[in-house]
Amino acid sequence: MAATGDHNAIALWQTRGMDVLFYLLKKWYFLCLAAVAGGLVGYLLFKRATPIYKADISFVLSTDQKDRNNFAGLASQMGFDGIAPSADNIFSGDNIVELFKSRKLIGSALLSVIDSPTHQSLLNYITQSQYRNLYLQLGPFNQQPNTYSAKQNRLYRKIITEVGKSFFVFKKDKKLVFFIISAQSSDPKIAYHVSKCLLNETARYFIETKTKVAAKSVNLLQHEADSIATVLRTIFSSTAVMNDQTYNLNPSISVQRSGSMFNQAKAMAFSAAYTEVMRNLEISKITLQKETPLYRIIDEPELPLVPVTGNLLKYILPASAFGFLLMAVLLAGKNLSTSSKSLQ
Fold first, then answer.
1. Residue 54 phi/psi, 5° resolution?
2. What is the pLDDT of residue 14?
3. What is the domain partition of the chain in residue ranges?
């Protein structure tokens, strides 16, 4: 008996389903009108949508490792070979892309000055443009984030998060060294300056990090060369004074020349050291030049930016489908309700 009841229930639902389907086919004009109305709504939404501006910059940022044999030997001679760079390149592959997304660099880019006459930073411009009331309440941001008030700090962190979501960095081809940074915003100036400031700040940090060890070597050797040169000048001056004091001395009395002879020996020793340091300094400068990455902008945006045109079909088709389905559900519900009442 239970099986017969289940069979009857299934047959009843199938019959109702066919009735609803035929009913919807009879009301096809309502479904079409609903689809057309949905399409019109989608078209209006397309026209009222806020225009989006995109700023793309293509650039070259070489991450190739250079020959460090000379530098490794130099570091060993100077006694700090432990700080010589290893063969691993922390900026290889997709690491450079992640570097762009770091909150530290985004925050530094926001502090970049975008208007020299007024010294306006990108952070203040974004705050004025998108958080006008808060800007009037909190006042302009200075260049020292550690001095911000609690409210300023919260807004600063919020803007960093939003900017981090507004751009992306990618390669056209993994085999190439060409990168593209693309920033989007409803304000064309924000998109433009975000892309440029982020690229400049990241490139600066990247180059400083890559050349830190080589630059330290140059500074140490330059300091050593300057120190030895100062000592040599002192020795030469002292020797000249002694020679003047012992001028036309009796050749049989040589003890008074001992100071001058000792200074000459010191000058020879320091001269040899100075020559070696200068040789290593030139090698270190060449190494620093090799360590400096190649950074060149290929193409960059120009103001005024052209708004990105959205796809009209992406607005019309979903809206039409929604209108069609909504009308179908309403008609089906009406048919089922009528059928239930007639059965009762």
1. -125, 130
2. 60
3. 52-211+293-308, 215-291
Contacts of 246 (CB under 8 A, 6+ apart): 256, 257, 260
More confident residue, 34 or 111: 111
In angstroms, the CA 115 to CA 126 distance is 13
Q: Return the amino acid letter for 112.
A: S
CATH number of 52-211+293-308: 3.30.1890
Pairing of strands 167-171, 120-121: unpaired
pLDDT surpasses 90 at 157: yes
CA distance between the termini of the chain = 23
For residue 258, the model assigns a pLDDT of 54
Amino acid letter at 204?
A: R
CA atoms 220, 222, 225, 229: torsion sign: negative
Question: Residue 79 contacts by C-beta under 8 Å, 6 or more apart in sequence?
Answer: none
pTM as predicted: 0.62
Contact between 297 and 180 (Cβ < 8 Å): no
Helix (H) / strand (E) element for 297: namely strand 295-299
Range with the largest mean pLDDT of 236-250, 286-300, 328-342: 286-300
Please provide the average confidence, as pLDDT, over all residues in the chain.
76
